[in-house]
Amino acid sequence: QVQLVESGGGLVQAGGSLRLSCAASGTIFSISAMGWYRQAPAAKRRDWIASITSNGSTNYADTVKGRFTISRDNVENTVALQMNSLKPEDTAVYYCYVVVLTPTPGHYWGQGTQVTVSS
Fold this sequence. Notes:
Blueprint: E1 2-7, E2 10-13, E3 18-26, E4 30-39, E5 47-52, E6 58-60, E7 68-73, E8 78-83, E9 92-102, E10 106-109, E11 113-118
Parallel strand pairs: 2-11
Antiparallel strand pairs: 1-3, 3-8, 4-5, 4-9, 5-6, 7-8, 9-10, 9-11
């Protein structure tokens, strides 16, 4: 069983920064992609915002490009999201995910962490 534990959410003023972290534990031999989604208040779906492959290639949604930076540690099986220049519209619950390759392929989610940006 794979579990993801997130940390780092909170309340910040517009223009501020936060760093989210996510640690994967359990029986994991290899992970392909890791990343983050978010779900804004009253939104019906989660929106993808950033991902990183096992070799470090990154992709970002246009809404966060240039402000957010994703990184990962392949030894510790962690993924982080550095969020700078935060805006009120970044307010959401942020979810990390990992795509495990071996020993048992699967897509796993964190429990979510609240980020609130005040104006």
